[in-house]
């Protein structure tokens, strides 16, 4: 199944709310995202992403037939790490296992490496999230190690994996 990445549009709010208002998705994301997630939450997110600093925040809707079915973002680090950026993403559960995640990650990395001075993109999925790890590996990321007891999610202490893609890779 083919997907495209594009800039968010306020009209995507209803689809975004539908996608992220899923506990299975939220259980694999950082804390701070409301649950349940409303259309108003989605509008606030989209508005903030559209007004974010374009040299530090790169966020895209993942679309199929121009319908937003997920989100992907790359966030520049600062200080001595200003040429590195962290990636995060999620996709509607009904689209899992169809190659969309890998395709969106590849498109996003290509865009970042062609349009910015970022040379390293990394992601830190929970170690148990084998689907996300597989997406990153299929997109060319290398596992650099396990971050032991690196996070607490839903009251559980979790390991994470560090994946990275270098521009020259």
What would you say this structure looks like, in words?
InterPro entries: Acyl_CoA_acyltransferase, GNAT_dom. It comes from Lacrimispora celerecrescens. Keywords: Transferase. Helix content is 29%, strand content 33%. The chain has 5 helices and 7 strands. Helix 1 crosses helix 3. The longest helix is centred in the middle third of the chain and has 16 residues. The mean pLDDT is 96.
Short description:
The chain has 169 residues and is of the alpha+beta class.
Q: Can you give keywords for this protein?
A:
169 residues, Aminopeptidase, single chain, 7 strands, transferase, 33% strand, 29% helix, globular, alpha+beta, GCN5 family acetyltransferase, GNAT_dom, Acyl_CoA_acyltransferase
Strand order, sheet with most strands: 1-2-3-4-5-7-6
Assign an overall shape: globular
Strand content: 25-35%
Average of per-residue pLDDT values = 96
What is the level-2 CATH architecture name?
Answer: 3-Layer(aba) Sandwich
The rounded Rg comes to 15 Å
Q: How many H/I helical runs?
A: 5
Oligomeric description of these chains: single chain
The helix/strand class is alpha+beta
- Overall domain count: 1
The counted number of beta strands is 7
Q: Kindly identify the CATH topology.
A: Aminopeptidase
What proportion of the residues is helical, as a percent range?
Answer: 25-40%
Separation, N- and C-terminal Cα atoms: 25 Å
Q: Ranges with pLDDT <50 over ≥5 residues?
A: none
Largest sheet: 7 strands, mixed
Q: What's the level 1 CATH class?
A: Alpha Beta
Write out the CATH superfamily name: Gcn5-related N-acetyltransferase (GNAT)
Order of helices and strands: EHHHEEEHEHEE
């Amino acid at each position: 199944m083919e997907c495209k990445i594009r800039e968010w549009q306020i009209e995507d709010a209803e689809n975004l709310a539908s996608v992220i208002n899923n506990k299975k998705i939220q259980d694999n994301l950082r804390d701070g995202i409301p649950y349940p997630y409303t259309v108003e939450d989605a509008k606030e997110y989209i508005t903030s992403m559209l007004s974010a600093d374009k040299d530090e925040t790169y966020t895209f809707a993942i679309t199929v037939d121009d319908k937003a079915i997920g989100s992907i973002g790359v966030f520049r680090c600062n200080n001595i790490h200003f040429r590195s950026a962290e990636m995060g993403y999620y996709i509607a559960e009904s689209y899992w296992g169809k190659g969309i995640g890998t395709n969106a990650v590849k498109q996003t990395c290509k865009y970042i490496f062609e349009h910015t001075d970022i040379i390293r993109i990394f992601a830190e999925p929970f170690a148990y999230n084998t689907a996300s790890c597989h997406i990153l590996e299929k997109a060319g990321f290398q596992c650099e190690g396990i971050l032991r007891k690196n996070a607490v999610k839903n009251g559980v202490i979790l390991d994470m994996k560090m994946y990275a893609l270098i521009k020259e890779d």
